[in-house]
Amino acid sequence: MSLSESDREWLLQAASLAGRGWGRVHPNPMVGCVLIRDGKRVGEGWHEEYGGPHAEVNAIRSAGDAARGATAYVSLEPCSHHGKTPPCAEALLEAGVTRVVFGAPEPGDEPGGGGELLAQAGIEVVGPAADVRPFHDVDPVFFYTTRYQRPYLALKLAVSLDARIAARAGERTPLTGDEANREVHRLRSGFDAVLVGGETARVDDPLLTVRYGMDPRIPPTRIVLDPSAALSADASLFRTQDEAPVLIFATEAASAERVGTLRDAGAQVEIVPAAEPIPQGDLPQGNLAQGGGVVQREGGANLEKMLERCWSLGIRSVFCEGGGRLATALTREELAQRLYLFKAPLTLGPGGVPAFGDGDSTPEDLGWSSTGEPIRFGPDLLLTYDYEGSPTAFREV
Ligand SMILES: [Zn+2]
């Protein structure tokens, strides 16, 4: 049985409710649910807190007796297993829901999802949707990491109208306004870790904590990719260690003394292999950062190994905030899944550092495709892209 137009509308509403769990439920999925009876919404809910009631249970509670005879629209197939809470499939049956429509199927190889259980109990079950993308977009981190068992990595870049990330190389140029900066902190709050390159850590001396009154369930770990462990022990990161851990990735090139200094300052330091140098003839003509610089010098870290180590440390999602050189390398090596591109209404001119290639290139030239309309934050725009170029690009069907 396929989805009617109104089924799809209600499902999309369930999907939009799911996002309210951002920063509070991962590594569990964000899920939303609406209950509809006689064309009217009688209940709604979402998974609000890790370990707490699931979306369906919250929706049933909000509907009370009105759940009886209703249709439940859920962004993800109701669960059938006993986890931290009893299965939602049972809760829906008990509440007297007579029809269940869901968007995305429960991922993984285990047979016997909640849809099957409900159908066996005589409920009309419709799902998964033919086009699951809107329902995966609710929580791409969850679906990607469940499938690939590797960290989901998102890049954040702020650029001028002429696609420059800074007025000059090695200089910090604040581009975005307060509303966009607030959105950056909201985005951070939904990731396990925030990552910057060593040069960005040195030039910006950032805190990388979640502020603006946001309250992530687990503050993201602050990662610095610092191959030679050159970061100063006086960096602001070390003054805020009660707020979030600091993790530094260095290579064998780092001296034992430097590694010891950073450990004494309170950081966890992990050693990963150095990157293979790029053959001279293979140098890029331009890149996200330094307008033609080498994306990965000898002595840089092996980024894939770094992400593997992240996974083994329990870090499932990484929000990379710079610099451009690191973003370029992650894109080139097909290790990034998403790009959050903030565009500020000013120009930096030809002397500025181009974000893409020689300055005329676009994210599309590098394999990114837009996920939808830009979103406005004050004077700035946020454009979101997914990477489509790699074998592990997330194009679930
Ligand atoms: Zn459930």
- How far the N terminus sits from the C terminus, by CA atoms, comes to 18 Å
What helical percentage do the residues reach?
25-40%
CATH topology of the largest domain: Dihydrofolate Reductase, subunit A
- The level 1 CATH classification of the largest domain is Alpha Beta
Q: What's the number of domains?
A: 2
Brief sketch in words of this structure:
By secondary structure, this protein is an alpha/beta fold.
Explain what the structure shows.
By secondary structure, this protein is α/β, with parallel strands linked by helices. The chain has 2 domains: 5-136, Cytidine Deaminase, domain 2; 142-387, Dihydrofolate Reductase, subunit A. It is built from 12 helices and 17 strands. Strands 6, 8, 9, 10, 11, 12, 13, 15, 16 and 17 form a 10-stranded mixed β-sheet that branches. Helix 3 (88-95) packs parallel to helix 4. The protein binds zinc ion. Residues 54, 56, 78-79, 88 line the site of zinc ion.
SSE blueprint:
Blueprint: H1 5-18, E1 32-37, E2 40-46, H2 55-63, E3 71-76, H3 88-95, E4 99-104, H4 114-120, E5 124-126, H5 133-136, H6 140-148, E6 152-159, E7 164-166, H7 178-188, E8 193-197, H8 198-204, E9 221-225, H9 236-239, E10 246-250, H10 256-264, E11 268-271, H11 303-312, E12 317-320, H12 324-332, E13 338-343, E14 353-354, E15 368-370, E16 375-377, E17 380-387
Parallel strand pairs: 3-4, 4-5, 6-12, 6-13, 8-9, 8-12, 9-10, 10-11
Antiparallel strand pairs: 1-2, 1-3, 7-14, 13-17, 15-17, 16-17
Helix pairs in contact: 3-4
Bound molecules: zinc ion.
The site of zinc ion (ZN) has 5 residues, from loops.
